Amino acid sequence: MEIGILSDTHISPNMNFSDLYDQLTKAFSEVELILHAGDVTNVQFITALEQIAPVEGVIGNLDDNSIHERFSPFVKIEIEQKKIGIMHQMPVYSFVTQEMLDILVTGHTHVPIIKEYFEQNHGFLHLNPGSPTQPRAPPLNTRYKVQRKALATVIVLELTQDISSAYIVTLR
Predict the structure, then answer these.
(1) What is the edge-to-edge ordering of all strands in the sheet holding 122-129?
(2) How many CB atoms lie within 10 A of CB 42?
(3) Which uninterrupted H or E stretch holds 117?
(4) pTM to 2 decimal places
(5) Domain architecture of the chain: domains with CATH
(6) How do the pLDDT tens digits run along the chain, 172 residues long?
(7) Which of 21, 75, 95, 101 has its CA 20 to 30 A from that of 3?
């Protein structure tokens, strides 16, 4: 199963999001589900995303009542025998182990992350898709003095019973 992941879209009430929608339609052309990790800020955007695939999402710190009526602060789903948790901000490690999550999807930082954690006999994959509308650059690589650019990004996650793979998709 292929899953599209995004966060921090920050769609203002009068914003024309048709260009973003077109880009997401291409990036998520094969997905069967979309996960939104908060800060949607416009419930009409979720309605539009549902034309691509069903949407599961959570409340971000800037979401209003229209999003609060639709989503909760934490969602846990199981797909292909993998427990996936979605929340806006990164929780403490003990929360992830308590919930027995295999994959944790967060947002909030606007910086894309694909990172594996393993500690005390429990490991999980952390995915943060960054932001397709207000991206932030990853921190400066001080070892090699490499400055990184802020790029509009989402993540595509491919799940099977045996293998999970995730990749960052850069939007134009």
Answers:
(1) 74-79, 82-87, 103-105, 122-129, 112-119
(2) 20
(3) strand 112-119
(4) 0.94
(5) 2-170 (3.60.21.10)
(6) 999 999 999 999 889 999 999 999 999 999 999 999 999 999 999 999 999 999 999 999 999 999 999 999 999 999 999 999 999 999 998 899 899 999 999 999 999 999 999 877 778 999 999 999 999 988 776 777 677 789 999 999 999 887 789 999 999 8
(7) 95
